[in-house]
Amino acid sequence: MSINTRPIYDLTMTIAARCAGAASRLWTRNTGSKTARFLRAQRDPIGPASRAGAATGGRRRVWIHCASLGEFAIARPIIASLRKDPTVDVVITFFSPSGYEVVSRKKDLYPEVYYLPLDSPGNVRKFIDCIRPDAAVFMVSEFWHNYLSELKRREIPVFLVSALIRRGSVFFKWYGTDYRADLRCYRRIFPLDESSRELLAGLGVMTAECAGDPLYDNALAIAAKPYSNPIIEKFRGNSFLLIAGSLNDEHDLELVAAVANKHPERKFLIVPHDVGSNHIERIVRAIKKRTIRYSNCSESTDFSAIQCLVIDYVGELASIYRYGDCAYIGGGFTPYLHSLVEAAVYGLPVAFGPRIERKISPAQLMEAGVGTMVSTPEELISWYDSLLANAELCDSIKEKARKFVDRNSGATEKIANSILGSLPHNSATKQ
Fold first, then answer.
1. What Cα–Cα distance (Å) separates residue 143 from each residue in 65, 112, 171, 179, 182?
2. What is the enclosing helix (H) or strand (E) of 272?
3. CA 195 from chain center: how many Å?
């Protein structure tokens, strides 16, 4: 049995698009929240792209959509590779403020960055008319029915990168008719593993090709760039440093605080996923010994009595991991575990929560002897204590981690070449 849910979807998106702007004007509390920032962006979703215009001058335009900053880490090396061709421009969109606010500030690198308008039929037609792409690239799990069908109608090639398909996903449900149709809108799908490719083939999708994960190339590129943070260097000193990256919720905080409170003599650096004041205050209250915000520090700060440094800005976590000796990665008590590769590239042993179903790297890192899954404070304490007590173990993991990342690198060029091969020789005649 199957059912066509498209009319309900279209109505929902149309209503949501009309209500978002109105809701933002009525939003009077916590106006710096992620939800409020997103709603404000939807007041005039087409306007920024319309005002910028797309004077192509014959240049080919590739539109790359990332849900948030995590997906942008996958897209970044692809963007860099595409831009080696002087005839190619790249347009980037985000759904989440966490990605848009970081990347849109880098106008010298990324001159065209927009929020993705909600997926109503009217928004879709107007937005595509504004940005005029010759190809579109979506990351991981982006299945916007109207965007995909309109791109297909206009014969604009679409790619899906780092897709992860599982037997229990929506494509295999009785209500998954429209999602199965979405899969046929892609010119090429690059799944993360052979299991995903086989499941797609079982659905009749023969355009899938395993190329690897560009996230590894991105992590290696960041690690190779010179980076220095005198404040973090002074805070760390000679201490064994645990970095808690993308700390997501109370479960993450409970585990990290337990380790910090058991080891008040050690240093801890926390990078919360949300740097709002309320989240940081909860961190400060959970750590018994003195905690300080990065924004309150300078190179002259005396860190001798400070156990925990909280990074209260976003955008540099992948570079900051180089100062760590081990890392706890947040988000593992939700379906959205954050990137382990960004820490593993520096040879760090990584620990994370039990929700790993949306990624393949956690199981791979556990098999390689680099990653450890934890569910309780006691398990994280045991992992941390074992690293403290055994320098040879840390050295062994560091070597395994670096070999693992090197072994999995190299996907970017294959994916970028496929995208470039789909582009017209010039864009003057496109619709």
1. 11, 22, 11, 7, 6
2. strand 267-272
3. 22
Cβ neighbours of residue 150 under 8 Å, at least 6 residues apart? 121, 124, 125, 128
The two domains 6-212+411-421 and 227-407 share their CATH topology (first three levels equal): yes
- pLDDT over 50 (residue 429): no
Asked whether the beta carbons of 54 and 132 are under 8 A apart, the reply is yes
Measured over the CA atoms of residue 58, residue 59, residue 62 and residue 63, the dihedral's sign is negative
How far are the Cα atoms of 254, 271, 291, 340 from residue 250, in angstroms, in the given order?
6, 14, 17, 20
Is the domain defined by 6-212+411-421 classed in CATH 3.40.50.11720?
yes
CATH number corresponding to 227-407:
3.40.50.2000
**257 is written with which tokens?**
């605080």
Position 57 pLDDT exceeds 70? no
* Cα Rg of the chain (Å, integer): 22
**Whole-number mean pLDDT of the chain?**
90
Query: What pLDDT sits at residue 30?
Result: 55
Domain ranges within the chain, ordered by starting residue = 6-212+411-421, 227-407
In angstroms, the CA 44 to CA 34 distance is 17
CA dist list (Å): 146 to 124, 152, 176, 182, 285: 7, 10, 15, 9, 46
Tokens of residue 414, six digits? 């294959």
- Percentage, residues of the chain above pLDDT 70: 93
Comparison of pLDDT for 151 and 169, the residue scoring more: 151
Read off the pLDDT band of 128 (50, 70, 90): very high
The yes-or-no verdict on residue 3 having pLDDT over 60 is yes
On the 0-12 / 13-18 / 19+ scale of CB atoms within 10 A, 28 is exposed
- Coil, strand, or helix at residue 375? coil
* Cα of 129 vs its chain's centroid, Å: 27
